[in-house]
Amino acid sequence: MHSESNWSTRPGRPEDVEAVAELRALVMRDDLVRLGRYDEHRVRQRLRDGFSPAHTSVVEIDGRFAGSVTMRPYENGEGLYLEHFYLAPEAQGRGLGTAVLRELLARADEEGLRVRLIVLQGSAARRLYEREGFTPESEDPVDVLMVREAVPAPGPRRPAGGR
Prior knowledge:
Layout (H helix, E strand, L loop, with lengths): L6 E5 L5 H18 L5 H11 L5 E6 L2 E10 L6 E8 L8 H15 L4 E6 L4 H7 L3 E5 L3 E6 L15
Parallel strand pairs: 4-5
Antiparallel strand pairs: 1-2, 2-3, 3-4, 5-7, 6-7
């Protein structure tokens, strides 16, 4: 499990695009091969074409690049869209993804915003998203669109029998 003392996020920068594209190619390879969709050039180019430094956070462990995540407004303005959430293989399976995701979802909850994302069919990441309250909205043979409604903050408690 990662402690808060050794990981952090920082705002994305245009020069992060190649590191994120390479990480995407690495971590998505097995799932894309399994689905018959892996193309060495396309997997990187799709990231480059859609990279948005203004909405991206870079995950660092002890100050070194360890991943990225993008959270941008959903195209119709109703909530947020989480994409490009990648962690280096050596950073996976130790609670970092959960910690980063919970931090992002807490911000969305504060604003009362639903969050959507797409995960590949059969991806292990789907379990993480389901644990954090995402449910399938639609599916096709390759992708699963998932959604999580905002969780309202607990309001002030009313005194027993009070008005």
